[in-house]
Amino acid sequence: MKLKELFRFKDLENSMALIIAISVSYLWILSADYIGYWGIGLTIITILLPTIYYVWSFKKGENLGEKFTFYFLNLIIMIAYFGLLYKAFGIKLPDGKEANLFDAFYFSVVTWTTLGYGEILPSSTESKIFVIVEVMLGYIYMGILIGKLLVLSKLGEEKKPD
Predict the structure, then answer these.
(1) Beta bridge partner(s), residue 87
(2) Which end of the chain is more exposed for a tag (fewer CB within 10 A), N or C?
């Protein structure tokens, strides 16, 4: 298998996993008014399901580049989702102003990568819970991401002609 072949989109299986998860997550968000915080928790779990699928199916060794691409896309969606949660539930800026959407996404990236600059803080109990969940997921996702990159680089080295 050539390295080029790793990044061909051969079937819809991987994209369908992500599309279904996003669609179901959206339904959970819509129902959050009725089921409360369970809707948000179920949304996070639903968005995690494609990640579990991509990690599990990565072991098969088929369409690795495609699976990595969708894994990375899912990672970006998770960071953006937490940014939306922070915007909805509140974060504190140093000057006391209300955070805009960019500030919320920035806080999400800083939290996900566990940089923790400290200039923006969660302002509610819900936001603090989301920070805890996002940090834990950030550790897990980044560990898996590094492992996948190592596998892909090893495959690339094995396929090079001497």
Answers:
(1) none
(2) C
